[in-house]
Each structure stands twice: as C-alpha cells, then as structure tokens.
Design a protein that fits this description.
Cofactor: Ca(2+); heme b
CATH superfamily of the largest domain: Peroxidase, domain 2
Strand content: 5-15%
Strand order of the largest sheet: 1-2-5-4
Binding site for Ca(2+) 2: 227, 279, 282, 287
Shape: globular
Structural class: mainly alpha
Radius of gyration: 20 Å
Catalytic activity: 2 a phenolic donor + H2O2 = 2 a phenolic radical donor + 2 H2O
Number of domains: 2
Oligomer: single chain
Subcellular location: Secreted
Bound molecules: protoporphyrin IX containing FE
Order of helices and strands: EHEHHHHEHHEHHEHHHHE
Binding site for Ca(2+) 1: 93, 96, 102, 104, 106, 120
Number of strands: 6
Length: 361
C-alpha cells in the first residue's frame, strides 16, 4: 500500500502509466492519492426530450468532434484525472433539472461578482468537482470558437468531451447526438435535491433516477462510471469506523479493503485532500471490474455496495460483472439517455454562450 502526493501533471501521467502496468496489483496495493482540490421502477411520465441529432453541426461546424478530440486527447495525456472529472461534470450538469435545467451547461456558469445568488457550481454537492473537467471544456470551447464562432453550445461540447474520455480510458465509443442549447439559469439552490449522495439508499437512488426518466437498469449501468476516478475520505469514512451508528465498520466491506482504507483515512483529523480509487483493481481503466468488485465487497461508497446487495439491482450487477460487451453497449445507450435530460432547443428556452462561464445578457 502506498500513498502518493501528486504535485504536477507529469507525475500524474507517470503514475497513470505505471498503474496501467500494475493492473495485476493486489488489493493491498490500493493507491491513495492527494490531488489538489480544485425500482423496479416504472419510468414516470415526462415530456419527451427534444430531438437531438448526430449531424446537427454538419454545416455550421463540420469538424466539431475532431476539434474537441484534439483537446481531450491532449488533456488525457497531460492529466488523466480530466477523464473522470469531465464525466462527473456532465452527470452533475444533466441531473440538476427542475423545469428549467438539465444538460445545459448551467454547471459551467460562474457566480456574478458581487451577486448574492450563487451559481450551480458553488453548491455544496458540486464543491469537489475537479477543475480539470472545467478546464477541458473551456479549452475545447476556445478552440471551437476560433474555427466556428458562435455556432456550438457549451452543453454539446461537454457531452462530446465526456464521451471522448470514456473512450480514451478504454470504454466504448458512441456517437453523440447534438443540438442542446445552453441554459439561461444557474442557481446553487437547485442542486441539493438532484444529486445522489454516497449514503443514499437504493430506494432513494431509484426514485431520483426515475425522476429523470432513467430506469433501474440505466442507474446500475451509469454507476459503472465509477470504474474510474476517486472519492475523498469523507465520502466513505463512516463505513470504516462507525457504520450507521453501530461503532463498527460496515460488515459489507472486505476486511483487506477496510484495513487499507483505514491506513489513509483516519477516523478524525485526516487530510481533506486524500482520495481513494473507486476501482481498486484498475483505477484508470474503463472496464467492467467495478461490478466484479461489488460482488467481492470491494465497493468504495455505501451507495455502490448497496447496488450489489439489493435484490432488484443485484442481478444487473452480477450480469454486468460477467459481460463487458453488454456493459459497454448499455453504457453508451444510457449515456445518450442521460444526455437528453431536460434538453433545450431554441432561443426561447436557451442561449448560445461564447464564454461558457457567463450568460448571454
Ligand atoms: C448512482 C449514484 C451516484 C452517487 C451516489 C455518486 C456519488 C459520487 C461521489 C460521492 C463521488 C466522489 C466525489 C469526491 O469525493 O470527489 C463520485 C465521483 C464520481 N462519479 Fe459518481 N455518483 C453516482 C453516479 C454517477 C454517475 C451516473 C456518473 C456518470 C455517468 C458518475 C461519475 C462519477 C465519476 C467519474 C467520479 C470520479 C470523479 C473524479 O475522480 O474526479 N457518478 N460520485
């Protein structure tokens, strides 16, 4: 077991490579990193999403996907954490949706200087979104603006960048449908009820996903994004020492994982920046190991582990743990569904920002 302090992008890159070589690392080699913080449910009736299309920018920006790809591939080389950061950013953008929001890049808006109304990204649940995700979108947008001024929405760029990183990390490639407009509103107060928590029960998760038009299967499949990326100790420390007030660790955690995590995440006074990988076997590879890990009690968050234990979601976990092709196929479909949540079309409901951080006045 080793703890790594990541100080610069090169170190991170070397670490990523060495990790990929070390895929066979034993469980006790869980790496902990310090990174600068920067229902069986029927889907409820909801408005059908606006139509998006793969060729939406065929005339106005024919090379859009390639332009974004040139940025994402560079980011992935320089700073592999940009991948999980951007995928999570897309998820948080799409899920915050109360009548007026959804996949609309409202998460990218900065609070107006001097304003008392905070933007979405300042909400408590968004505080740990890594800067690398925002940086990726801003760089891609700058390049796209230089070639196709005023044509492409920030929300489409975020959707394309998230897909690129899934693929760059070893996951499926899928076509991204486009035509989203950016949102005119971004309010921190809309976030809390729309983002799942590390200690959410399966019932709560199912209800939340169903409220976005996403099924039980979509939920289990999208959670597979936790095959890459990291979580801060505070998200799982309760499982290590005092699970649900029992003063004992979560019995559903493998004792070797428990021991390794306790070494880096003390009950009190641990470093706020310490993070642990979601997937202890292949933390930088987009594969289906997440599901196998859950079956072996190696889930990091209580919400992850809960998926394997619940009789409704457990069978999907076991199926995907055995079948990588199916996971990839279903993940691509579920990302398209998630990418359609609350999508806006047209000037009446949306805007086309040139700078993703400020609304068009
Ligand atoms: C099912 C309910 C979910 C819960 C409860 C949940 C919760 C969390 C939490 C607590 C973190 C750690 C944040 C931190 O400490 O910095 C995290 C990270 C992450 N989540 Fe989720 N999440 C869920 C679903 C999803 C979905 C649907 C996606 C994408 C499709 C996703 C993608 C990610 C990624 C990639 C990371 C790693 C981010 C990084 O390393 O920068 N999550 N999630």
């Amino acid at each position: 077991m080793y703890i790594t302090h990541i100080q610069n992008k090169n170190t991170m890159q070397i670490l990523a490579r060495s990790r990929l070589h070390a895929l066979s690392i034993s469980l006790l080699c869980i790496s902990l990193l310090i990174i600068p913080s920067s229902a069986n449910n029927p889907t409820p009736a909801r408005r059908p999403p606006r139509q998006l299309s793969v060729n939406y920018y065929a005339k106005s920006c024919p090379n859009l996907d390639q332009l974004v790809a040139s940025v994402t591939s560079q980011q992935f080389k320089e700073s592999p954490v940009s991948g999980p950061a951007t995928i999570r950013l897309f998820f948080h953008d799409c899920f915050v949706e109360i009548v007026i929001q959804g996949c609309d890049a409202s998460i990218l808006i900065s609070t107006k200087p001097g304003s008392r109304e905070l933007a979405e990204k300042e909400a408590e649940d968004n505080k740990d979104l890594r800067t690398e995700g925002f940086d990726t979108v801003h760089k891609a947008k700058a390049l796209v603006e230089s070639k196709c001024p005023g044509a492409v929405s920030c929300s489409d760029i975020l959707a394309i960048a998230a897909r690129d990183f899934v693929h760059l990390a070893g996951g499926p490639y899928y076509q991204v449908k486009k035509g989203r407009w950016d949102g005119k509103f971004s309010k921190s107060t809309t976030v809390a009820n729309n983002i799942p928590r590390a200690n959410s029960t399966v019932d709560e998760l199912l209800n939340l996903f169903a409220s976005k038009g996403l099924s039980l299967q979509d939920m289990v499949v999208l959670s597979g994004a936790h095959t890459i990326g990291f979580a801060h100790c505070k998200q799982f420390v309760g499982r290590l020492y005092n699970y649900r007030g029992t003063k004992r660790p979560d019995p559903e955690m493998d004792p070797r994982l428990l021991k390794a995590l306790r070494m880096s995440c003390p009950q009190f006074g641990g470093g706020a920046g310490v993070v642990a990988p979601f997937d202890v076997t292949t933390p930088f590879l987009f594969d289906h190991a997440y599901y196998g890990n859950l079956e072996g009690k190696l889930g990091l968050l209580a919400s992850d582990q809960g998926l394997a234990l619940d009789p409704r979601t457990g069978p999907v976990v076991r199926l995907l743990g055995k079948d990588k092709e199916r996971f990839f196929e279903w993940f691509a479909v579920a990302m398209e569904k998630m990418g359609s949540v609350g999508v806006k079309r047209g000037r009446r409901h949306g805007e086309r920002r040139r700078d993703c951080t400020v609304h068009v006045s």
